[in-house]
């Protein structure tokens, strides 16, 4: 919830960052410089790998959390016997309150569905927030590499172009710092 509320509270700042990332990414992606194209392709591939792996781990964890009570019931005969005999309650997905008896069927089933949906939505929020943060960090590294390529080529042009290139690099550096 803290991640969601912080995202809402600083929504204007997050929006500005995402707008900047989009603008700078498009400028690099459609550059005529083959070094910059190769750089952006390399970091795009890296970002996809990192975010897909992270998303897979997050949703695998959510899946295990959601279905753990069912797995325990199916795989543990002792637990099944204790539940049937009334010595043990059904295992909950997460601890929660519901306006019906969640310790007996069908209330237990409905509580698990509600808890499972909540877990799945929370996993989506967490993944979304973290993937945005990861992508921005990877983008900053890619933009620094692109800036390095551009600064290395500053003096490979006429005097007028050199001044324009210095201004462009300075502007990009200031935007990156912001």
Task: Considering the chains and any ligands shown, give keywords for the structure.
mainly alpha, 178 residues, 0% strand, 6 helices, sensory transduction, elongated, 80% helix, single chain, receptor
Q: What distance lies between the first and last C-alpha atoms, to the nearest angstrom?
A: 27 Å
Mean pLDDT over the full residue set: 89
Provide the helix percentage: over 70%
Question: How is the main sheet built?
Answer: none
The SSE string, one letter per element, is: HHHHHH
Classify the beta-strand content into a percent band.
under 5%
Low-confidence stretches: none
Tally of extended strands? 0
Describe the 3D structure.
- The chain has 178 residues and is an all-alpha fold.
- The chain contains six helices and no strands.
- It has helices spanning 2-9, 11-29, 34-75, 77-85, 107-152, 159-177.
- The two termini are 27 Å apart.
- The model has no long low-confidence stretch (mean pLDDT 89).
Quick synopsis:
With 178 residues, the chain is mostly helical. 80% of the residues lie in helices and 0% in strands.
Give me the secondary-structure topology.
Blueprint: H1 2-9, H2 11-29, H3 34-75, H4 77-85, H5 107-152, H6 159-177
Helix pairs in contact: 2-5, 3-5, 5-6
């Amino acid at each position: 919830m803290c991640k969601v509320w912080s995202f809402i509270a600083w929504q204007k700042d997050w929006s500005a960052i995402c707008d900047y990332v989009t603008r700078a990414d498009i400028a690099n992606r459609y550059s005529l410089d083959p070094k910059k194209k190769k750089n952006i392709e390399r970091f795009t591939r890296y970002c996809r790998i990192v975010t897909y792996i992270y998303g897979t781990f997050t949703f695998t964890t959510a899946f295990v959390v959601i279905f753990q009570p069912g797995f325990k019931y199916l795989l543990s005969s002792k637990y099944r016997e204790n539940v049937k005999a009334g010595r043990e309650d059904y295992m909950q997905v997460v601890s929660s309150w519901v306006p019906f008896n969640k310790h007996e069927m069908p209330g237990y089933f409905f509580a698990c569905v509600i808890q499972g949906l909540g877990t799945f939505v929370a996993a989506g929020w967490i993944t979304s927030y973290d993937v945005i943060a990861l992508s921005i960090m990877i983008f900053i590294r890619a933009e620094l590499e692109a800036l390095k390529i551009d600064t290395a080529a500053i003096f490979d042009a006429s005097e007028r172009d050199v001044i324009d290139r210095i201004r462009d690099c300075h502007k990009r550096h200031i935007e990156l710092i912001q």
